[in-house]
Amino acid sequence: xxxxxxxxxxxxxxxxxxxxxxRKRPGMYIGSVSxxxxxxxxxxxxxxxxxxALAGYCTEINVTIEKGNIICVEDNGRxxxxxxxxxxxxxxxxxxxxxxxxxxxxGGDSGYKVSGGLHGVxxxxxxxxxxxxxxxxxxxxxxxxxxxxxxxTVSTLTKIGDSKKTGTKVxxxxxxxxxxxxxxxxxxxxxxxxxxxxxxxxxxxxxxDEREETPRKNExxxxxxxxxxxxxxxxxxxxxxxTPIYIEKDGEYPVEIAIxxxxxxxxxxxxxxxxxxxxxxxxxxEGFKRALTKTFNDYAKSKNILKEKDGNLQGDDIRxxxxxxxxxxxxxxxxxxxxxxxxxxxxxxxxxxxxVNEKLSTFLEENPNVAKAILEKCVSAARAREAxxxxxxxxxxxxxxxxxxxxxxxxxxxxKNAEECEVYIVEGDSAGGSAKQGRDRRxxxxxxxxxxxxxVEKARADKIYGNDKLNPVILAVGAGIGADFDITxxxxxxxxxxADADVDGAHIRTLLLTFFFRYMRPLIENGNVFLAQPPxxxxxxxxxxxxxxxxxxxxGAFEILKERGIERDQVSIQRYKGLGEMNPEQLWETTMDPxxxxxxxxxxxxxxxxxxxxSLLMGDDVNPRREFIEKNAKYVKNLxx
Length: 641
Description:
Elements: H1 20-24, H2 27-30, H3 35-54, E1 60-66, E2 70-75, H4 92-98, H5 122-128, E3 130-139, E4 142-149, E5 152-162, E6 167-174, H6 186-199, E7 204-209, E8 216-220, H7 226-233, E9 245-249, E10 255-261, E11 268-273, E12 276-277, H8 283-302, H9 315-319, E13 322-328, H10 346-366, H11 368-401, E14 422-427, H12 429-438, E15 444-449, H13 461-464, H14 471-477, E16 494-498, H15 503-519, H16 521-525, E17 529-532, E18 537-540, E19 547-549, H17 555-563, E20 572-575, H18 584-592, E21 599-601, H19 607-618, H20 622-632
Parallel strand pairs: 1-7, 11-13, 14-15, 14-16, 16-17
Antiparallel strand pairs: 1-2, 2-6, 3-4, 3-6, 4-5, 7-8, 9-10, 10-13, 11-12, 17-21, 18-19, 18-20
Helix pairs in contact: 3-5, 3-6, 8-10, 12-18
């Protein structure tokens, strides 16, 4: 290896002082500098206020997006301490905002029993990544304020008045030299704060958006806590029992769990530690699953619902159709990294398991009708699982007898490197034929699908194997489905849905996305699913290069014509009704050429809202879907009449 000739001594060792390290490598602290990282700034400040609520001192949090994308977070907690810190010789408040790993949440004699802010970097990181920050504190009869610019103090903590109230108000403007965008998404913040309010019974969180002429505002406060959360999640589903099962335990490790079964076929379990969404689960989820399986099997055997010869129900059988929220409070949680997505405390598994075994057993004994309804579904799920196993084996045996395990209509690519390969799932044989001719055969595969496929929201796994529309997709992706899905075995780095830009195309996209979400969710979480964006119009004139336009509004296209000295009445306009209207060259130029195409990556920042949306759009309950259509019909574009 060629050496890089340069001096390497003490002068080359950089020491980043204060908050310089945060500005130098922001992704290490907030994940990214995209819109996701931008929202993370708000979460850090609101989390601090929620920690005050968990400690029993805060009852209201007000979050405002002011004009110019300025964020203001105000709470009625105790207020950040204003006395001098013995080590930094600064006020405690200034220390919190200028020193990494400084906070009142490190156990021992700290100011918090439990907290999500384990690492003590939240406030200081927000300060470092903001163009300016202003902190106002009401405490000890006084009104105090301090100001910062890009993490540096420009006005130390100063008493500016008297106050009989307590609380903290933080205003900041994210630094546009750090972030890709400063535009906050109201719905993303709204969903997050609704979730926080569910998890903290009685806490009122208000979010206001003042950027438009008519401000938007939502207020969240749920006295029902986790029960309200589960009812919200199951709003569009048919329930097996009217009210959630609620069990709790106090003590050193408080645990709250709410459970409700529905007629759906998927399981939805959400876990939280100190109000942090542990999206990767952890020991609290492990303990819950083990206890759930044991408790229902023991009850079924004791009531002769299951005979000894039947064996045990499996965990998947018992969790079919379950919606559960698990919330634990841990004084010193062990998370995997600053992203805090998986709980590692081993002792929590046993605590949760013992609590669920005891409390759920008691509930089932006291509510035999509910127990019977749930177990009937579990037994039905077990039969379907066995049918699915046989169907799966049949598919595998059939594939083994054929010359290839790939679907017959798949036109595969020559490359075997999954990272560079992509498969287009194309609506219709006509478009599939054009795509096959127009593609780059080296790395682009084409899988034509004809007609509407199975709505998996209304079907179990045994109906999916062997389905003539979905089985080709399963075989092409090559990684299995459901619990057997293995992301490391995918054959294509990009799975691209290419459907017509009309109502039928939208339906097909939704059906495929529902399938991926329910049975290949890691494919979405890993960023492997994309939507192709075919053009809606072609503007053409003899002697002029064709203009392909992807938006319903042609104003921009006419402006381009004007710049070329061409009047709009001089050109012909073709409205594409479907992909089949394009020849192979046009399809390549507009929709498949990596240098010119437009792809939309399907992401899932909020699994809770994604689950609700799929249940609403694809589930059995018609009334909520009708309400959704009536509410959103005015936003529809490109509707073919």
